[in-house]
Amino acid sequence: MDKNGWAQFTNRLFLESSPYLLQHAHNPVNWYPWGDEAFQKAKELNRPVLLSIGYSTCHWCHVMEEESFEDIEIAKAMNENYITIKVDREEQPDIDAIYMSAVQAMTGSGGWPMTVWLTSDRKPFYGGTYFPARDGDRGVQVGFLTLVKKLREVYDGQSDKVAESSEALAKIISERLRPAEASDLPGTESLKSAANFYKQRFDSKNGGLSGAPKFPSSMPVRFLLRYYRRTQDKSFLQMAEKTLSEMASGGIYDHIGGGFHRYSTDEKWLVPHFEKMLYDNALLAVAYLEAFQLTGNEEYSRVVHEILDYVLRNMTSPEGAFYSATDADSLTPGGHREEGYFFTWTPKELDQILTKNEAELVKAYYGVIREGNFEGRNILHTPKPLSEISKRLRLSEVEARQVINKAREKLYLERNKRPHPIRDEKILTAWNGLMISAFATVGFVLNDSRYTAAAIRAASFVLENLYKKERLYRSYKDGHAKFNAYLDDHAFLIAALFDLYETTSDLKWLTAAISLDQVLEKHFEDKKSGGFFMTSTDHEKLLAREKPAYDGAEPSGNSVALLNLLRLGELTTRDTYRKRAEKSLTAFSGALSRAPMSLSEMLLALDFYYDLPKEIMLVLPEDKARDDDIALIAKLRKAFLPNRVIGIVRAGNELKSQSKVIPLLKGKYPMQGNSTAYVCEKGICQLPTSNPEILGKQLTKVAPLK
User: Fold this and answer.
1) Strand partners, 676
2) Cα 200 to Cα 194, 410, 631, distances in angstroms
3) The 3-state secondary structure of 522-575, one letter per residue
4) Which of 415, 448, 522, 534 has the fewest CB atoms within 10 Å of its CB?
């Protein structure tokens, strides 16, 4: 800022809507957004391109900006030697995937911020992640400023080597971003191999995989629950429960505001990286919900409620869609940005806010100590159960829980007075899809109309604002939809719409899911080899067209699309869905055989394929509302049935219209005027029943894993 408070520098990013790009709009660096203009300028000036990729809530992205991109000397060197481009990886994941593959090939690892040196024809010749600004900073020999100067010298003086290196890397990228072709379907051995891998590497003390950092997704709880269901091997249920319990009691969980931080930096789940991502919380809400269905443990239900209430309170736009993330950093009272300050406490702060009795219990229960457990402050966590703490303080557990709840509310209100972490308010179709699924599924299982209404509102927003002329868009901000949607946008939204249909019985959600799948089939599907490409047939031509084959913190679009095909096939009985699913499974059979844990979400689809999925049709009398028949539907809500499809309809016109899309409903009717459940497997049906207890027994039958 100048002395009048005006920005001293403004670059082209000022015209963008991405919160991440706007954070860099007043750097002295002459940033371009990704596009032909930047590369054309690089050709005209015979300059290399310096590409920087990150996202708005990335802590080390902020650090590199402060150290390098706001430094006048470094910015001058960048501007004089390069055409510089900034990319928000969350808006353009295809670009991120391509150049991350290059960085991993060059360095053996990757991360953000990502910094890549390119030729003017978009081919990488050098790259890395975070670079300290100058030689000697943070203990490195060569800093970013030196690299900026030296690599320009290499580009000018050793052009043959640069061309050779960039060509080789382009070839590696193309090979890495597609799975090896295969001809056979993967078998159940992939499920068994993955289960054995997780069992061997399980951290029996802290849950999750052994070691640090710990990401929630690295121990796929939903797979473990399914494997237990099919094998009845309790060790897998115990692994899942231990992981869920330790995460919920650790500092990775926000005990005051609800929701999970992105990952834990230590093996105990205590010290998180404090950013909160929409996708993490969507996936974890469903994982805890399924564990609640399977075990009946009310603690899991409590966590589910707190996650979704946090999202409704803090991550929902006025129109009902869901924001993307919140930052790890926030301002201290002294005006400095510090990671985690917003979420941490000192004993003195607690004493000032709470009564003496409340403070005593809160400090004991949440592990608060005088010296702190994080930079002199305390990350709240619950190392011991409330029953043990309440006994020590001579309280009943019920009394203690009441005191804790009252204290949490006080602390939440006080915390809200602090400067909040920055919130990334762009609306991403894929991440909204995941959260819509969470709200819809939780709304059904916990019979909470608030959550169902939130799912409907968000889905309506996405279809009205990001789906135009039968094409989907990736991102929405400030009234505008941008970027062609990717595979995961389509796949996650299709799953969400399917979940909404099963929750509400409103056929429009199912028909929308079917229509979106037709877009996927036409523009993304590999008709020859199976599976789906990340980008559409009419997308910008890049160095490679990725076919995603890795489930990380987010599921891959292929894993979710594959399960969508199996679910659609089961519900509509159209065999084309099964054939497409089998072709996709075959496309990934090599990866599923060699390293099934790399496709942990696809294992859910593989489990569905080798199970006998239940086709559950519930037909109500015409004069009965969906929720009138509480007893039968309650059995469906409570049952852990991951591999099933559900249709709940009323006799009469509703049954007639839905039967046209769902042939499983044909010939079904409410027997003797009573709501009647029909449970079938592969078209073979058990006796229809209006008795909730009989239905419960029919639902509990499981086909063992062979």
Assistant:
1) 619
2) 10, 43, 42
3) HHCECCCCCCECCCCCCCCCCCCCCCCCCCCCCCCHHHHHHHHHHHHHHHHCCH
4) 522
Q: Tokens for 647, please give them.
A: 């249709």
CATH 3.40.30.10 domain span(s) along the chain: 12-176, 611-706
Nearest-CA neighbor of 523 among 551, 552, 549, 557?
557
What is the per-residue pLDDT for 179? Answer: 80
The closest of 488, 548, 552 to 215, measured between CA atoms, is 552
316 φ, ψ to 5°? Answer: -115, 130
- Pick from 186, 184, 182: which is nearest to 593 by CA? 186
Span 155-183, pLDDT tens digits: 999 999 999 999 999 999 988 888 877 77
611-706 is a CATH 3.40.30.10 domain: yes
The SS3 assignment for 313 reads helix
Q: Is the pLDDT of residue 2 over 70?
A: no
Q: CA-CA distances (angstroms) from residue 69 to 35, 83, 201, 422?
A: 21, 14, 41, 19
- Backbone φ and ψ of 61, nearest 5°: -65, -40
Helices (H), 210-277: 221-231, 234-249
What is the helix (H) or strand (E) element at residue 630, kind and residue range? Answer: helix 630-638
**What pLDDT, on a 0 to 100 scale, did the predictor assign at position 1?**
53
Residue 615 token pair: 């086709």
Taking the whole predicted model, whether its pTM rises above 0.85 is answered as yes
| pLDDT band with cut points at 50, 70 and 90 for residue 625 | confident
Q: What does CATH list as the number for 12-176?
A: 3.40.30.10
